[in-house]
Amino acid sequence: MRFFKYLAVGASFFLSAHCAANATVYHGFPHLHLTMAVVDAGGGATHFDAHRLVRSLAGAEAPAENAKLIKQYGATRVDSFYAVYTFAVKDAVKKAHNMLIPLPKSHPNPASGPALARALYDAGVTPSKRFDVGYMLEVLMSHQIHHNIMGDMDRKFTPPVNADFHVILTTVMHDLNHEYRSSGH
């Protein structure tokens, strides 16, 4: 049994390294106004909570989205997703503060879930026109800070949990994009 546990962890490291090696890297300036809209929608820098962010983004559909995620990934993985997401945003804000990066007012309005969800999805669309959650995170905070935070996430939660966070966040972003674009929001 122990062998399979180590095999699964090893495979996860390999797949994470392979995906990272093939990722599209964002080299531009971070869209800090969008970053702050995420932070504000989740409760602000001091009280950020990923549950609150997803509720803000999904609006009335939040319970259905959460139920879908639990059915698709299981309650433990979804709970972990929220914990990692909360940690990652708080870590990003802390790093920005430590690097003396001034954080602007948020835009779009964090109270508009559909507008914020669309802006986040659009931030993750690579030059080759495909959505990549890692690219979205780099647009929000820069390539360097994204990778620093990933290292922090790996140390605190393990690489497989970090990889799970990226997978589940991709699902959330695809779901919200589909919901809002198909409904005309």
Separation, N- and C-terminal Cα atoms: 49 Å
- Morphology: globular
> Roughly what fraction of the amino acids lie in strands?
under 5%
* Overall average residue pLDDT: 86
Number of domains: 1
Number of helices: 9
Radius of gyration of CA atoms, rounded to a whole number:
16 Å
Oligomer: single chain
**SSE string, helix = H, strand = E?**
HHHHHHHHH
Low-confidence stretches: 1-19
Biggest sheet overview:
none
Total beta strand runs: 0
Helix coverage percent: over 70%
Structural class: mainly alpha
Quick description:
This protein is an all-alpha fold and 185 residues long.
Keywords:
globular; disordered N terminus; 185 residues; 73% helix; mainly alpha
Characterization of the model:
There is one protein chain. Helix 2 (32-41) crosses helix 3 (50-58), helix 5 crosses helix 9 and helix 8 packs across helix 9. This protein starts with a helix and ends with a helix. The chain is 73% helix and 0% strand. By secondary structure, it is mainly α. It has one domain. The chain is built from nine helices and no strands.
Please outline the helices and strands.
Elements: H1 2-21, H2 32-41, H3 50-58, H4 62-73, H5 75-98, H6 113-123, H7 133-141, H8 143-157, H9 159-183
